[in-house]
Design brief:
Blueprint lengths: L1 H31 L5 H25 L3 E4 L13 E4 L6 H8 L4 E4 L1 H5 L1 H9 L3 E2 L13 H10 L4 E3 L17 H9 L3 E8 L18 E7 L12 H23 L23
Parallel strand pairs: 1-7, 2-5, 2-6, 3-4, 3-5
Antiparallel strand pairs: 6-7
Helix pairs in contact: 1-2, 1-5, 2-3, 6-7
């Protein structure tokens, strides 16, 4: 019986998301765009993004599908533009992070821009496409150029260096775009780690493959890496970050095993201190 209820709740969450996206794309965006001032439109679209992401996350927490644990912001958390990097274990990581940091833009796959409804929403939100509309268009800006343009305008970026969701049992290779964008723009790198107490909404896992109990997301904010005025080898930094994330990912998998039977009660392991982080 619990499984049927969970499937219904999960389905209602994604119905809520897509119906909301359609309303935003075809009703709210045209209304919010009624201004000749691009800055006014940008602020309105930012408000729209904040409203949509927080509404979706609140719905999932209210229906007890998930719970989210954020630490306090460290005193040296950067203001203005920065590059936040994260692992990508589940389908809803972007909305969870943006519900806490609504000023973020992000890099999204071309398929999201090509969808009739969602495409209008992500373009209005100022997200950066991972590839140009036409692969043969040599003059189209690359994802790195799009990130640099946003960072230089003062917009912080959320980037998943794997480029897509992680595999169930391993992280994918980190691409260097996030590190290179931060180095070229001279902005800080903010590494965060998304810990999930059980496998859910993973790559290749259908939405109706539901989990027992509450999916607990515990977010770790690792020390900020300053780049301005420093001579940093981007390749070496990217490799170091990947090694640290891989070590933390392995620990997450190990922590899941002992609590498998306890998930029916929505419980999980107590959060553990983060692994040593890049400085």
């Amino acid at each position: 019986m619990w499984r049927v209820l969970r499937i219904l709740v999960s389905g209602s969450a994604f119905l809520f998301f897509f119906v909301g996206a359609a309303m935003i794309s075809w009703v709210m965006i045209p209304l919010l765009s009624l201004s000749f001032d691009p800055e006014v439109r940008r602020r309105r679209h930012l408000w729209m993004t904040r409203f949509a992401t927080r509404g979706f996350v609140r719905y999932m927490t209210m229906t007890t599908m998930i719970e989210i644990h954020w630490p306090p912001l460290p005193p040296d958390f950067p203001e203005g533009a920065y590059v936040m990097i994260a692992n990508h274990p589940t389908l809803i990581d972007t909305t969870i992070v943006m519900s806490r940091f609504p000023e973020l833009s992000t890099v999204a796959g071309r398929k999201w821009f090509d969808r009739p409804g969602l495409g209008r929403m992500v373009r209005a939100a100022g997200w950066v496409p991972s590839s140009p509309p036409n692969p043969d268009d040599k003059g189209a800006p690359t994802a790195l150029e799009g990130m640099l343009q946003a960072l230089r305008a003062g917009t912080p970026m959320l980037v998943f260096p794997e480029g897509t969701r992680s595999d169930q049992d391993r992280l994918l290779r980190f691409r260097r775009g996030a590190v290179e964008a931060a180095l070229q723009a001279g902005v800080p790198i903010v590494p965060i780690y998304i810990d999930v107490n059980q496998p859910m909404l993973m790559r290749g896992q259908p939405w109706y493959d539901v989990h027992e109990g509450v999916g607990r997301y515990t977010i770790e904010i690792w020390p900020t890496i300053e780049t301005a005025g420093r001579d940093i080898d981007g390749r070496a930094l990217n490799q170091e970050l990947m090694a640290r994330y891989k070590a933390r990912f392995s620990r997450m998998l190990a922590e899941r095993q002992p609590v498998k039977g306890a998930l029916t009660a929505g419980s999980g392991p107590e959060p553990t201190p983060p692994s040593p982080s890049p400085e």
